[in-house]
């Protein structure tokens, strides 16, 4: 067996398939682009869906990649198994309508067994296949695989909803009988029994059908272009080359584990319980790569996943005795391990460390809150005479506060309580089912459109004109290629060349008119998108008959294009300003450049302050007024990068690219259309800044006449306020408002004092009515108050003297009911008493032993509530 590093295995895979005519596709960002069905890029094929469903035809139908991926639908298994990870690399080779079964299986056999490449022993390899797929079986036999190493498995058919599907054949590596103590053999594969002997290293999906959920599998139609989709786990293959018991003993993880050993003073034992080491090593890889790709910890979506991973890793660090922030110190180690293929990790090291450290510091405070929550729960149970911590409460501690079940169990047992494991497992299963359902929902691809795929006539977009004459070379109506289209219909059209910009890179499509040589209007262009083979595909509202082969005059709506260009050019200025003022991490995460506004999404870990927004807006306007020249350069990708050109998020660039340079201020790769000088923008105004997801912010802005209109509307509003305040000039409005605010504060103080005196007076009467039950003195009364705060004032006054042991107050405020319980008695828990009384007013509530509140909606239940106090003491 060869001894190869993980970097060598990855590179050998890519080199092999490149030698077979495949283009090497770089690993894409972990955050999906223009794919709302996925939370993360979760496989090698996830970024290639547009090729498989036929919406885009690749330049080379043979593709290979090493794609970083994240799957988090069963995080709790990480560390418990030998090969489960949240982040992993999927090695893949893909054919888009080119080679199929024979070549794909042949490539796999050669790469795995040839001494020039991986050089695995053939007798160590086993393959599964779909029982009805005799062709795959026969192909393996042709290559010399022993029939006893070929196992039929009914589940070997890949399909997720509608779209490309087909049988698959999996490849397993036999690690030997030492990993099969019961000598079960290949039944472990055939019956899908979890085991450490046969390691699945490669899955080849033979995508040959268009799956249709409406018909049985036997009636699926053949794809017009059959595809090959494969996936091989880098971590698994590396573990075989390096003779590792689990994936964690490879060079992808061990350097991280060694650093954790130094930080903890504990030793990693390959044969012992190393779950905490494994969890930390796995999770810091996911955190490092995801944050480097623009995802940030938060309370929802991707952010919630990252926060959960970080908190789980921190808690396992505590189990190893690491009680201070430490994960951020491991970022550099992750970067060094992956540097050969992912140099960007070390390039972004400072930012990633900053985010991880900040999140660790925040979680340290959260742990204190979680501990307090657990203490309250245990106190409530003790007061109620219960001895078991419920599963839902355990899950809340786990899910909200990041407490591992083991930690909850340890603390609860120390306090003399049992753990409801079954209830916790049920709550966990509900969450897993929801997560898995979301994964399934996001996996399917669209159906291939053969009509659009078959449009191969060339077409070019012409940048430097807004009108030209061009021949109509392709025409589609009702998804059929046609010769003519009649008036009143909607059609798709391709011309030999066009001045109409197809929607791309955030810039909306051009609109305009199609006319005859005589000037008669024959169609309106209402949209332009890229056809599968890359041509601008015009959507036409047909006003007069259109025919193939005819020459037409194509004219773009100049006013609309000019407005779009103002907003697009302003977007470049905004992007540069964000970099300068917020930091280099504030990179584009999506954009829209329309005729009446621009929308720019960017990565940032907190709301942009008013001062920062003002500075951003000012800087953009300064660059507009400096009248910077805008230069467009056509060059190759390497030259563009050497010039310092910034690539836009989600865009894919070929070898030939366009660079948009705005003075010495901004330089970006961009295929859109732009102005010639920034002065043409005129004015820039930010309308809104908001968060749209964890770690992602959005700015909405306007330019030119729309910006002037926005300023005018603000001016009119200020003038109206000035008139109301009787301020002679707008500049006097702030001082007038400040004066009114001061008057309001004085009135509020006076009002509060009056309320307090009134409450004290009322309390005097309420506190006289003292009753007793079960040896507990209590006051239970309905009071008239304006808000819940007044109830607290009653309670504060009650605490000052020894009126009673328990106070119960209920008040109707509007159409709602508020309940307050305060207790000085060790035998009466205020929170438990509130829970017992609240149902009488159709309410819920809770609180601490000394003070608790509840809200309800049934005013008629107040008398019953007061009557029930004695029996619940």
UniProtKB/TrEMBL annotation:
Consists of three domains; the N-terminal catalytic domain, the editing domain and the C-terminal C-Ala domain. The editing domain removes incorrectly charged amino acids, while the C-Ala domain, along with tRNA(Ala), serves as a bridge to cooperatively bring together the editing and aminoacylation centers thus stimulating deacylation of misacylated tRNAs. Its EC number is 6.1.1.7. It is found in: Cytoplasm. GO terms for molecular function: alanine-tRNA ligase activity; aminoacyl-tRNA deacylase activity; ATP binding; catalytic activity, acting on a protein; transferase activity; tRNA binding; zinc ion binding. This is Alanine--tRNA ligase. It catalyses: tRNA(Ala) + L-alanine + ATP = L-alanyl-tRNA(Ala) + AMP + diphosphate. Residues 62-255 form the Aminoacyl-transfer RNA synthetases class-II family profile domain.
């Amino acid at each position: 067996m060869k001894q190869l590093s993980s970097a060598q295995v990855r590179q050998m895979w890519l080199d092999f398939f490149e030698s077979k005519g495949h283009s090497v596709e770089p690993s894409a960002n972990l955050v999906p682009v223009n794919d709302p069905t996925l939370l993360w890029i979760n496989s090698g094929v996830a970024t290639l869906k547009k090729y498989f469903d036929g919406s885009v035809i690749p330049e080379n139908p043979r593709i290979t990649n090493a794609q970083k991926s994240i799957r988090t639908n069963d995080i709790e298994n990480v560390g418990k198994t030998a090969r489960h990870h949240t982040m992993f690399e999927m090695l893949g080779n893909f054919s888009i309508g080119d080679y199929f079964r024979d070549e794909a299986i042949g490539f796999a056999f050669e790469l795995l067994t040839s001494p020039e490449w991986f050089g695995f022993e053939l007798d160590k390899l086993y393959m599964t296949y779909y029982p009805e797929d005799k062709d795959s079986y026969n192909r393996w036999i042709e290559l010399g695989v022993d029939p006893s190493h070929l196992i039929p498995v009914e589940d070997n058919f890949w399909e997720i909803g509608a779209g490309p599907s087909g049988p698959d054949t999996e490849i397993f590596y036999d690690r030997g009988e030492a990993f099969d103590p019961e000598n079960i053999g290949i039944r472990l594969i055939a019956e899908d029994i979890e085991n450490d002997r046969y390691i699945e290293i490669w899955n080849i999906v033979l995508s040959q059908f268009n799956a249709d959920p409406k018909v049985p599998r036997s009636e699926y139609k053949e794809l017009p272009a059959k595809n090959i989709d494969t996936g091989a786990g880098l971590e698994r293959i590396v573990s075989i080359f390096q003779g590792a018991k689990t994936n964690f003993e490879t060079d992808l993880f061990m350097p991280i584990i060694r650093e954790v050993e130094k930080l903890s003073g504990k030793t990693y034992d390959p044969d012992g319980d190393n779950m905490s080491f494994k969890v930390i090593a796995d999770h810091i890889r996911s955190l490092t790569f995801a944050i480097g790709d623009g995802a940030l910890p938060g309370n929802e979506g991707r952010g919630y996943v990252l926060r959960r991973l970080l908190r789980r890793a921190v808690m396992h660090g505590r189990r190893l005795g690491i009680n201070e922030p430490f994960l951020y110190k491991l970022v550099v180690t992750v970067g060094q391990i992956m540097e050969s293929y992912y140099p960007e990790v070390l390039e972004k090291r400072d930012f990633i460390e900053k985010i991880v450290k900040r999140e660790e510091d925040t979680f340290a405070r959260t742990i204190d809150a979680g501990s307090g929550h657990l203490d309250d729960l245990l106190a409530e149970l003790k007061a109620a005479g219960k001895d078991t911590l419920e599963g839902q409460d355990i899950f809340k501690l786990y899910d909200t506060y990041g407490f591992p079940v083991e930690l909850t169990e340890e603390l609860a047992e120390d306090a003399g309580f049992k753990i409801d494991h079954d209830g916790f497992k049920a709550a966990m299963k509900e969450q897993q089912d929801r997560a898995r359902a979301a994964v399934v929902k996001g996996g399917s691809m669209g159906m291939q459109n053969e009509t659009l795929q078959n449009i191969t006539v060339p077409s070019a977009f012409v940048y430097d004109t807004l009108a030209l004459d061009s021949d109509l070379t392709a025409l589609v109506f009702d998804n059929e290629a046609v010769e003519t289209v009649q008036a009143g219909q909607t059609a798709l059209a391709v011309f030999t060349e066009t001045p109409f910009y197809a929607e791309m890179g955030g810039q909306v499509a051009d609109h305009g008119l199609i006319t005859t040589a005589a000037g008669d209007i024959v169609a309106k262009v209402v949209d332009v998108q890229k056809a599968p083979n890359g041509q601008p595909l015009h959507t036409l509202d047909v006003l007069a008959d259109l025919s193939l082969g005819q020459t037409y005059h194509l004219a773009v709506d100049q006013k609309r294009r000019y407005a779009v260009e103002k907003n697009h050019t302003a977007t470049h200025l905004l992007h540069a300003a964000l970099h300068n003022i917020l930091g280099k991490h504030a990179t584009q995460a999506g954009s829209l450049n329309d005729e009446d506004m621009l929308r720019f999404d960017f990565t940032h870990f907190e709301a942009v302050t008013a001062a920062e927004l003002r500075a951003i807006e000012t800087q953009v306007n300064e660059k507009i007024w400096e009248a910077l020249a805008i230069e467009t350069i056509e060059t190759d990708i390497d030259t563009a990068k050497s010039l310092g050109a910034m690539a836009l998020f989600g865009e894919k660039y070929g070898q030939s690219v366009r660079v948009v340079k705005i003075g010495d201020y901004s330089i970006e790769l961009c295929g859109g259309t732009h102005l010639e000088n920034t002065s043409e923008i005129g004015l820039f105004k930010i309308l809104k800044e908001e968060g749209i997801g964890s770690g992602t912010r959005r700015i909405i802005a306007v330019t030119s006449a729309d910006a002037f209109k926005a300023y005018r509307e603000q001016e009119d509003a200020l003038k109206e306020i000035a008139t109301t305040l009787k301020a002679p000039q707008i500049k006097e409005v702030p001082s007038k408002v400040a004066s009114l605010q001061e008057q309001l504060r004085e009135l509020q103080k006076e009002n509060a004092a009056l309320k307090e005196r009134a409450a004290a007076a009322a309390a005097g009467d309420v506190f006289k009515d003292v009753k007793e039950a079960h040896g507990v003195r209590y006051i239970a009364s309905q009071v008239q108050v304006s808000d819940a705060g007044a109830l607290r004032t009653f309670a504060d006054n009650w605490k000052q003297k020894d009126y009673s042991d328990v106070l119960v107050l209920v008040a109707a405020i509007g159409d709602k009911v508020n309940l307050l319980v305060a207790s000085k008695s060790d035998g009466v828990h205020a929170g438990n008493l509130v829970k017992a009384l609240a149902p009488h007013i159709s309410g819920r509530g809770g609180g601490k032993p000394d003070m608790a509140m509840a809200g309800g909606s049934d005013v008629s239940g107040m008398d019953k509530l007061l009557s029930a106090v004695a029996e619940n003491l």
